[in-house]
Design a protein that fits this description.
Mean pLDDT: 88
Distance between the termini: 52 Å
Number of helices: 6
Number of strands: 0
Low-confidence stretches: none
Structural class: mainly alpha
Shape: globular
Largest sheet: none
Radius of gyration: 18 Å
Strand content: under 5%
Order of helices and strands: HHHHHH
Length: 156
């Protein structure tokens, strides 16, 4: 592939705002989990969110930090389902069941996004265009049902 051009002007501002807003949402999810459910991480993921955000924005200019941002981003993205998998393993009954629903829901959501980003076309490019048009949104819709089921407030 050809090297990515650094972002300038309006493109840099828009991409930075998109990144910051995205990471704000992820921060609140991790912060809630790390302050209420999984305290052993000592806010590692909450802090990592802002590290990845900052490195990503710097990378928009330099375009040579992907070797840092990608592994950190993977830790950040996979940390959330792993927290729920840990919760499922260490609990029982309805909590375990709901944690498993959330775990699978997050994985479906991540996979749906991953299959939809332009970089994934290199990996899944052999699949027919119809599959690439249908599978990602279907996975994301399934994930919403699983997440809703897993986050239900009544344990009945």
């Amino acid at each position: 592939g050809q090297p990515m051009l650094s972002l300038e002007g309006e493109a840099f501002i828009l991409e930075s705002i998109y990144t910051i807003v995205s990471y704000i949402g992820l921060f609140f999810i991790y912060y809630a989990m790390e302050s209420k459910v999984i305290k052993k991480t000592h806010y590692f993921f909450s802090i990592l969110v802002w590290v990845v955000c900052a490195v990503s924005i710097i990378d928009f200019i330099t375009r040579d930090l992907l070797f840092i941002t990608m592994p950190l981003f993977l830790v950040l993205v996979l940390g959330l389902p792993l927290i729920f998998l840990t919760l499922a393993i260490k609990s029982s009954g309805a909590v375990r069941t709901n944690a498993l629903y959330v775990f699978v829901g997050i994985l479906c959501f991540i996979l749906g996004i991953a299959l939809d980003i332009p970089d994934a076309k290199v990996i899944v490019g052999a699949l027919p265009i119809e599959v690439l048009a249908i599978v990602p949104p279907t996975l994301q819709i399934i994930s919403m049902f699983l997440l809703r089921k897993g986050f239900q407030t009544k344990l009945d």
